[in-house]
């Protein structure tokens, strides 16, 4: 069945891949144009498009903690505005996907984090996302809502201020040195193409509730550096900067059992993601 999908943040990193995938599958896809902080404009556009499915990707993805005063306006107020607008078309609306973050778990305890792990957000970014989750509970009686908690993911086209694109870029350009913090922290990385496939599958699913988006495998920054050196044959000097060393846990990895049960799409091996980013091919 052809879906009419409204995607917020359609021009962003994840949105680009999701919109392309959905259109390839023959669905009608609309990228939200209104500012989600403007309830009237947002409601007018949502009712005009009258989507059967909504994916809410829009957000502030990179901020020094506390430096962007819009983070609550966008993640909390903007998301509730979207839910209010969705209430106007709820008879036709089959699924709403809201994107939260694995940062709501805080540092964790080194064990694979599942959806029942206690939340302990430690940054304004994480708090604003968890506040969105809490507000969304008020709409569950009327809307079919899935809240995803993505762990780290990357791919070709991600902005260079993020860690993995920064690493790949330095090796592709064969730069002599790189500035990093602690390279022995281990994180759960996924591929943006896989993330897009998961969102597509979740739109088709009958499920509601909270689900992790993760690979279940953690790799260290040191491992990524070694892999990129091996693939490119380029040695790079590491300059560790104290101001880049954050107060954070050494290991954070997700439990993907629930996601496997819901969609069963096998994650890409992270090495294949790095190979793809090195190749410079967009798809």
What does this structure look like?
By secondary structure, the protein is α/β, with parallel strands linked by helices. The chain has a domain of about 180 residues: 3-Layer(aba) Sandwich (Rossmann fold). It is built from nine helices and twelve strands. It has a six-stranded parallel sheet with strand order 2-1-3-4-5-9, sandwiched between helices. Strands 6, 8, 10 and 12 form a four-stranded mixed sheet that branches. A two-stranded parallel sheet has the order 7-11. α1 packs across α6, α2 packs across α3 and α3 runs parallel beside α4. It is globular, with a radius of gyration of 19 Å. It starts with a strand and ends with a helix. The mean pLDDT is about 95. Belongs to the NAD(P)-dependent epimerase/dehydratase family. Pfam families: Epimerase (PF01370). It comes from Thiothrix winogradskyi. Its EC number is 4.2.1.47. Pathway: Bacterial outer membrane biogenesis; LPS O-antigen biosynthesis.
Kindly report the average pLDDT value. Answer: 94
State the helicity in percent bands.
25-40%
Q: Which structural category fits the helices and strands?
A: alpha/beta
* Cα-based radius of gyration, to the nearest Å: 19 Å
CATH architectural name of the domain at 4-155 and 189-214: 3-Layer(aba) Sandwich
What's the CATH first level of the domain at 4-155 and 189-214?
Answer: Alpha Beta
**In the CATH scheme, what's the topology name of the domain at 4-155 and 189-214?**
Rossmann fold
Order of helices and strands: EHEHEHEHEEHEEHEEHEEHH
Content of β-strand: 15-25%
Report the total helices: 9
* Count of beta strands: 12
Q: Write the CATH homologous superfamily of the domain at 4-155 and 189-214.
A: NAD(P)-binding Rossmann-like Domain
Rounded to the nearest angstrom, the distance between the terminal CA atoms is 25 Å
Shape annotation: globular
Residue stretches low in confidence (pLDDT < 50, at least 5 long) are none
**Tell me about the biggest sheet?**
6 strands, parallel
Strands side by side in the biggest sheet: 2-1-3-4-5-9
């Amino acid at each position: 069945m052809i879906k009419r999908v409204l995607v917020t943040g359609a021009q962003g990193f994840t949105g680009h891949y999701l919109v392309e995938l959905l259109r390839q599958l023959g669905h009608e896809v609309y990228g939200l144009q209104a500012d989600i902080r403007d309830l009237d404009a947002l409601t007018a556009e949502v009712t005009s498009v009258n989507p059967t499915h909504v994916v809410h990707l829009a957000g502030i993805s990179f901020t020094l903690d506390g430096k962007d005063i819009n983070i609550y306006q966008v993640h909390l107020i903007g998301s509730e505005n979207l839910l209010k607008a969705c209430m106007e078309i709820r008879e036709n609306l089959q699924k709403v996907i809201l994107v939260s973050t694995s940062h709501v778990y805080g540092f964790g305890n080194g064990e694979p984090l599942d959806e029942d792990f206690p939340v302990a957000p430690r940054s304004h970014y994480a708090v604003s996302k968890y506040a969105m989750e809490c507000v969304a509970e008020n709409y569950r009686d009327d809307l079919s809502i899935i809240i995803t908690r993505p762990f780290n993911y990357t791919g070709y086209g991600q902005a260079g201020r993020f860690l993995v694109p920064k690493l790949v870029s330095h090796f592709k350009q064969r730069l002599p040195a790189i500035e990093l913090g602690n390279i022995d922290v281990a994180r759960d990385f996924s591929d943006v193409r896989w993330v897009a496939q998961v969102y597509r599958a979740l739109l088709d699913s009958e499920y509601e509730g909270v689900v992790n988006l993760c690979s279940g495998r953690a790799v260290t920054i040191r491992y990524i550096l070694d892999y990129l050196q091996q693939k490119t044959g380029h040695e790079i000097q590491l300059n560790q900067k104290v101001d880049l060393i954050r107060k954070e846990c050494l290991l954070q990895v997700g439990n993907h059992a629930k996601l496997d049960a819901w969609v069963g799409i096998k994650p890409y091996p992270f090495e294949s993601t790095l190979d793809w980013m090195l190749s410079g091919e967009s798809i």
